[in-house]
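Review form for a predicted model. The reviewer records the input and the model, then writes brief findings.
Reviewer: anonymous (R2)
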Amino acid sequence: MRVSAAGINLADIVQMIEAALNTLILLGAGIVFLVTLENRRKRNRVIRAVNRLRCIAHIVDMHQLAKDPDSIAEHTISTPHSPKRVLTQYELARYLDYCTEMLSLVSKTAFLYVQDYHDPVAAEAVNDLEALTTGLSSKIWQKIMMLPSQQSDSPARNPASQF
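Model under review:
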């Protein structure tokens, strides 16, 4: 292949520069795509995992919805379609407390996904999940606080008697 500069005019030089710039831009875009590919894949995995944890938080919330502190009151009147309320006051308090613990575990598990992964989008998803679980826990704690304090229903307070 022989290359000579004879016979090249300004239009040919502009075309060669334009072609070279287009090639450089496409190569740059390809390199950026490949460099960010791993980060985008990690982000998608974290977002999917956080969405699964969000589903678990909503399931915990669904299960506690029917656990009403008023249901243990003696003046409560049930309808034929009311669910059976078989929990004692102590059991209801423990059940609701367990629900708040599960929501806390869901939130902490989500944090583990982004602990060593510094991506603002993934961190925002985890922060949103933490806000959701905190709000759900607050609703449950309101129910717990509505329960009258009654010690006759609870197991013995002596820790040695439980073993």
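Findings: Confidence is low (pLDDT under 50) at residues 156-163.
Further findings: Helices lie at 10-65, 89-114, 120-146.
Recommendation: see findings above.
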